[in-house]
Amino acid sequence: MSENCSHNCEHCSENCNEREKESLLAKPHDGSDIKKVIGVVSGKGGVGKSLVTSILAVMAQREGYNTAILDADITGPSIPKAFGIHEHAEGSDEGLFPVMTKTGIRLMSLNLLVENETDPVVWRGPIIAGIVKQFWTDVIWGDVDYMFIDMPPGTGDVPLTVFQSIPVDGIVIVASPQELVGMIVEKAVNMASMMNIPVLALIENMSYIICPDCGKEIHVFGESRIETIAEKHGISTVAKLPIDPKLAAACDKGMIELFDGNWLNQLFSNIKTQIKENKTMKIAVASNGKDIWGHFGHCEFFNIYTVEEGKIISDESIPNPGHKPGFLPNFLADMGVNVIIAGGMGGGAVDIFNERNVEVVVGAEGDARAAVESYLSGNLKSTGSVCHQHEHADECGEHN
Ligand code: ADP
Fold first, then answer.
1. Domains of the chain by start residue, with CATH
2. From atom 23 of ligand 1, which residue's Cα is the shortest distance away?
């Protein structure tokens, strides 16, 4: 940074770090509301990065989240094929529209824009990075809970530029067993830490095969090193995917959305928890100061817990400011609350919280702090106790 830096890059021609930081992050299209962005990276092509991206998106969509895939692997875009999509994306004066897969995942890929999908892409790095950036700025993504980005392979200039232009919440690293022996994974971990992006999971693809006759796992490349590497870098979620001919066939036939494998079940939930833990969040509990109050709208206090990396770092108790229609959910959302825990709640209040992207957990009881801890460890699930029928409907904020 120059000695004379005015912190206003607009009128300065110097090329310094500050300037880069200011100018690189791109603004998404006005028609996009993208909540969480997960980048899937690998050291080189062909290790199953696109496959893992597709699987994660399929699982998120199955859980009911609005899901999108931004295919940033411009020189080897294989996502549309896995979903059986060969049509072209359409646009308007406003921007480009993603194509919908059979189950409703929104997808944008260079292959949806080129005349002939088998034409090679012979562009240089900056052009490729520019296209990816445009997929972020010019595509009208709509409301997206989870966007998965199939990143350009490697840890060079192109993935780096993409990381600098798109606010990625976390990355998933996909590696082959051989790569886990070398330094490729370390490079990806270092790139993430340079960019201050958490590594959410490390996935060893093609880790083993299952004998079709006896069901035994055969570790073709020897014992896996994934646990050791994950431990070294403090990565808590690991997964090993087998070489599964059914999986290759599902991709080839464009039917990845129908695929079911028992190793799939935990993967997305673990990644989701990781993302939650990596963020500072606020959890509000409707209470009497100590215990959870049965009915949201008429509680005495809201206990507000600030959470960092999955741990409560501070708490405060604020008196309920009063029960007026539409007021409390917006009041809490304006305070930056991400989750509300209560005994019961009216449907009106639930709707406002949903609109404000605040997670609602109802049906909870007992000690407020213990409930928050239980939520953070993944044990507190909403019972869906919405008070629209019983005698407390009004008290719970049905008209909130
Ligand atoms: P990348 O995105 O890293 O270049 P892909 O996800 O396109 O790699 O995978 C390369 C090829 O290997 C694809 O044809 C894919 O279907 C196949 N493949 C990847 N992982 C597996 C697996 N675990 N079992 C069977 N086939 C796989």
1. 32-277 (3.40.50.300), 280-392 (3.30.420.130)
2. 243
